[in-house]
Design brief:
This protein is an alpha+beta fold. It is built from three helices and ten strands. The longest helix is centred in the N-terminal third of the chain and has 68 residues. It is rod-shaped, with a radius of gyration of 45 Å. The structure holds FE2/S2 (inorganic) cluster.
Length: 201
């Protein structure tokens, strides 16, 4: 009887051990499956994020292109010809800077008539300043100096400043035409080398 009981206890122990092993195997199996699922989901997450990121970038670029198209690249170029008021508006001896900012032109009235100087230094193209107290144009870039006629007399400028056409329109106003340029050569008084640049009024 005691032998029979011992056998039953052994059997029970063996049974319990087998269950523990089966449970351990089952646990390992579940953990493996869980790990596999996690790997699969993390790959899905990665591709999902990648596609959303791509979509975001595409949308942003499209939006920027749309906004850019609302502001077309237009370069404002002032017209070549402009009206400059009546001759009587200009005192004799004056260098008018009224149209320098917009059209880069000085209008000069001398006893010989009117002429319009293109305000571009013949050295490297800077815009000189008219210094009324010194009766000359002075280039701020490298110091070239020009007389009132545009003739260069100091600094690196190689020749006088050019002039543009000035005439009187049908309504009696001065008309400056920048498409007609009187190019000045070195060493000659601008009034003498291009007398047609002078409007005698
Ligand atoms: S650009 Fe005028 S002096 Fe050089």
């Amino acid at each position: 009887m005691a032998k029979e009981k011992a056998a039953t206890a052994e059997e029970l122990n063996a049974l319990a051990e087998r269950r523990r092993q089966e449970q351990a195997v089952e646990r390992q199996k579940r953990e493996r499956e869980k790990a596999q699922r996690a790997g699969l989901w993390s790959r899905r997450d990665f591709f999902g994020r990648l596609s959303w990121g791509g979509f975001g970038v595409f949308s942003l670029v499209s939006l920027l292109a749309f906004i850019r198209s609302a502001f077309p690249r237009v370069l404002f170029v002032p017209p070549a010809t402009f009206k400059a008021g009546f001759p009587a508006d200009y005192p004799v001896g004056e260098v008018s800077e009224k149209y320098k900012t917009e059209f880069r032109v000085w209008i000069v009235r001398e006893p010989v008539g009117f002429y319009a100087i293109f305000a571009k230094c013949t050295h490297l193209g800077c815009t000189p300043r008219w210094l009324a107290s010194e009766n000359k144009y002075k280039c701020p870039c490298h110091g070239s100096g020009y007389y009132k006629t545009g003739y260069n007399f100091e600094g690196p400028a190689p020749r006088p400043m050019d002039r543009v056409k000035i005439a009187v329109g049908e309504d009696g106003q001065l008309v400056v035409d920048k498409s007609v340029l009187f190019r000045m050569q070195p060493g000659v008084d601008p009034n003498k080398q291009h007398p047609e640049s002078i409007l005698k009024v």
